[in-house]
Amino acid sequence: MQTSPPFRRDRARLPAAERRRQILEMTTKLIAERGFWGLSMQDVADGCGLTVPGMLHHVGSKDSLLVAVLEYRDEQDSLSLAEKLGRPLHQLFSDGRISLAEVCDAVVRRNAEQPEIVRLFAVLEAESLAPGHPAHAYFKTRQRRTLDEFAALAEGVVDDPRELAAQVVAMMDGLQIQWLREPETVDLVSAWQPAARRLFER
């Protein structure tokens, strides 16, 4: 029976920013597999070749690590979305040149390329419904921001932009859950296209 090689803690020192990014990526992977409550600081440290105190030196507590992971992934996804749409990030929701349908199509296509990240957010978002969860406030703020941004894109296009924004978010989240549960039978992009036509062709 093969066993995994022991983790080494004598790896070359990395610059602080690179080490922090390594920790965030390892934590992302483990949370996607186990959820936040199943996350072990020892496993994160082992995966990075660090001791637990050495790892916490870069990220603080377990709770602060979770929020840092979410902020990091949101930042990476926003940059990728801006690149896909060919627009500067700071102009995506403000210059009136991108429609809500275009943004949603780009988001869905981006998410279809990274099921592990989508699973991470789906698991944490469900867990964070408990008021005591360390990401409860984060997801509450994130949901409000998303609805505000989507509603701004729908302004002047429909009578109730906020209602459309809420319907879009609900549809996207629901389809993603179906896709994550049965990826062999559900294609996220193909499932989104007819849903988008019903939402936007009014």
From TrEMBL:
PROSITE patterns with a match to the protein in the record: HTH_TETR_2
Q: Which Pfam families match?
A: TetR_N
Q: Which InterPro entries match?
A: Homeodomain-like_sf (IPR009057), HTH-type_TetR-like_transc_reg (IPR050109), HTH_TetR (IPR001647), Tet_transcr_reg_TetR-rel_C_sf (IPR036271)
The question of whether Transcription is a record keyword is answered with yes
| Keywords per UniProt | DNA-binding, Transcription, Transcription regulation
Q: DNA-binding: present as a keyword of the record?
A: yes
Instruction: Kindly provide the name given to this protein in its UniProt entry.
Output: TetR family transcriptional regulator
Report the source organism: Actinoplanes italicus
